[in-house]
Design goal:
6 helices, alpha+beta
Length: 162
């Protein structure tokens, strides 16, 4: 599978909530980061997708502009879902950058506007405080705690770094 096909397989699997195929696109030593999960390595990165996909109730994913050349690639993707803590509708627009090693994704970096996301997901507190370092750190801490709980209940990820 070429690099462009790997990206497309990852997002088609995401659309189908097939976290196992998503994980198979990653190298064992993958590093994932985005504005919420700022640095996840290996099993911790793979577990994050498992957690997100398996907990999603009304998630829809679309992707476009897939490009891959040399050892890198990118795409744009959008997620629409109800945020589980508040039930509020979220439409997040994300840009993904990838680096590859031996045909697998070794680095995956998503960028999106965390302040905009906070406003959609959290309502007025997110709209008023989403730009502050305090709120951004609260969002990150809550997500990290959720991932740690997920890892604790899934022994297949016991080797995941904290």
């Amino acid at each position: 599978m070429n690099k462009k096909e790997t990206i497309e397989t990852f997002y088609r699997s995401f659309q189908g909530r097939d976290w196992q195929t998503m994980q198979s696109c990653y190298d064992e030593a993958v590093v994932f980061s985005d504005p919420v999960f700022t640095h996840l390595e290996g099993d911790r990165a793979r577990a994050m997708w498992h957690m997100l996909v398996s907990s999603a109730k009304d998630l829809t994913i679309s992707f476009s502009n897939v490009v891959a050349n040399g050892q890198s690639g990118s795409c744009d993707w959008e997620a629409r879902y109800s945020f589980s803590r508040t039930g509020r509708a979220v439409h997040n627009r994300i840009h993904a950058d990838f680096q590859f090693a031996d045909g697998k994704i070794i680095r995956h970096t998503d960028t999106f506007d965390l302040t905009r996301w906070a406003g959609m997901a959290l309502g007025w507190p997110g709209k008023m405080l989403g730009w502050t370092p305090w709120m951004k750190n609260q969002i990150r801490a809550t997500a990290s705690t959720g991932l740690s709980r997920f890892l604790a209940s899934h022994p297949e990820y016991t080797g995941a770094k904290k």
